[in-house]
Amino acid sequence: MPFQKGNRVNPGGRPQRKDWADMLRIVGNQKGPDGKRKLRLLAEKVYELALAGDMEAVKEIGNRRDGRPKAEADEVATGQPHAKQSPNAPLASMRSPPPGPLLTFPTIACPPS
To answer: Read out DSSP for 14-81?
Structure first.
């Protein structure tokens, strides 16, 4: 049977596989040597590193608890650093030039053609 125009055979698309996330969930829920879940042991380790002064661990805790800061999230999403624009930025072109001498260029006479 030929494909009919406008007929979507698989409207949801190919199902997304999340093998890595599934494996992390499985291993994280396993018990460690002291009976605690491995995910809890990992979280405790991140807190230990943060308390020892590891700033990456501090950032990770903050990002997981409070969410990534807006400027950083924008930078990650766009690949461009966040440029904070002044609320007066549209008026910047209307301002007078700074005091001081203006640049002048010598005039060059061109021969008539």
So the answer is: SPPP-HHHHHHHHHHHSB-TTSSBHHHHHHHHHHHHHHTT-HHHHHHHHHHHH---HHHHHHHHHSS-
Nearest partner of 45 among 29, 30, 57, judged by Cα: 57
Mean of the pLDDT values across residues 3-13?
A: 70
Count of beta carbons in the 10 Å neighbourhood of residue 3: 7
Quote the pTM value: 0.47
91: amino acid identity, one letter: L
Q: Which residue has the tokens 């640049």?
A: 103
Domain boundaries, the chain: 36-81
